[in-house]
């Protein structure tokens, strides 16, 4: 399994010193390499928390999170940072591009943390070919502020892919886009899964995006349920 969660729980302290809030209550999940999974559920149900725990951005309180069979809780911060940078790509609802950098420079930001050996690869050429794939070769030297919302999100997808991750985690990637741009991103994600075999876990409110994934899980009351496949 590429990703495995065993009885994962996560709680947050209540802001008003009330009882802790149990966001994840024993979540089990197994995602094989090459699969694509949509996670749906009401707002506040813990979808982002779940994604952050899988992506080593946040820690589970109990249970096990395994990435390629390695348990994340056993790793130190340096090893976790390496996993976040090399093995996982992240896409968020808001693109988080740096406004002062060009599209091409933004895409190369995750490569800055790579060790020297990895930099021998021709990263700008890889960036350019990915930008071409998402229809942005004309826009490489523009700044994010000069692009549409849909174009900016495509830049964010390319940035997530630049270090060739095995796993792409997306948190409501079409949540702030118009329908056409949202469909465009949904098609791009589905294509990355089908053509490149990239494993995807996508939190979404969009049934159109969820339908493009192989599996759908529903998170409610801290429990993750798989929906029967149609
Ligand atoms: N860092 C945090 N500290 C305290 N509470 C949090 C934190 N992050 C999320 N929560 C709470 O946990 C619950 C789940 O949040 P979240 O995972 O963002 O849900 P979703 O993404 O499904 O909307 C919410 O009630 C939220 O307020
Ligand atoms: Mg969320």
Report on the structure:
This protein is α/β, with parallel strands linked by helices and about 230 residues long. It is about 30% helix and about 25% strand. The chain is built from eight helices and ten strands. The strands form two sheets. Strands 6-7-8-3-9-10 form a six-stranded mixed beta sheet, with helices on both faces. Strands 2-1-4-5 form a four-stranded antiparallel beta sheet, covered by helices on one side. A hairpin with a 2-residue loop joins strand 9 and strand 10 (about 225). Helix 6 runs parallel beside helix 7. The longest helix has 18 residues, at about 180-195. The protein is globular. About 40% of the residues are buried. The model has no long low-confidence stretch (mean pLDDT about 95). Magnesium ion binds near residues 47, 48 and 171.
List the main descriptive attributes of the protein structure presented here.
globular; 25% strand; 10 strands; binds adenosine-5'-diphosphate; four-stranded antiparallel beta sheet; six-stranded mixed beta sheet; binds magnesium ion; 230 residues; single chain
Question: What can be said about this structure in brief?
Answer:
By secondary structure, this protein is an alpha/beta fold.
């Amino acid at each position: 399994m590429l990703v495995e969660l065993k009885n994962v729980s996560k709680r947050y302290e209540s802001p008003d010193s009330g009882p802790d809030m149990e966001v994840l209550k024993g979540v089990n999940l197994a995602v094989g390499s090459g699969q694509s999974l949509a996670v749906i559920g009401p707002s506040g149900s813990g979808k982002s928390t779940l994604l952050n725990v899988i992506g080593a951005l946040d820690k589970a309180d109990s249970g096990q999170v395994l990435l390629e069979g390695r348990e994340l809780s056993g790793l130190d911060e340096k090893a976790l940072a390496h996993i976040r940078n090399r093995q996982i790509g992240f896409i968020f609802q808001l693109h988080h591009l740096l406004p002062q950098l060009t599209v091409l420079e933004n895409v190369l930001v995750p490569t800055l943390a790579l060790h020297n050996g990895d930099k021998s690869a021709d990263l700008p050429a890889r960036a350019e070919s990915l930008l071409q794939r998402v229809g942005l070769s004309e826009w490489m030297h523009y700044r994010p502020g000069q692009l549409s919302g849909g174009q900016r999100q495509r830049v964010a997808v390319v940035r997530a892919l630049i270090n060739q991750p095995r796993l792409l985690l997306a948190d409501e990637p079409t949540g702030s886009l118009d329908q056409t741009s949202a469909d465009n991103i949904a098609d791009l994600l589905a294509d990355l899964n089908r053509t490149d075999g990239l494993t995807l876990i996508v939190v979404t409110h969009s049934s159109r995006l969820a339908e493009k994934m192989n599996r759908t899980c529903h998170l409610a009351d801290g429990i993750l349920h798989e929906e029967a496949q149609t």
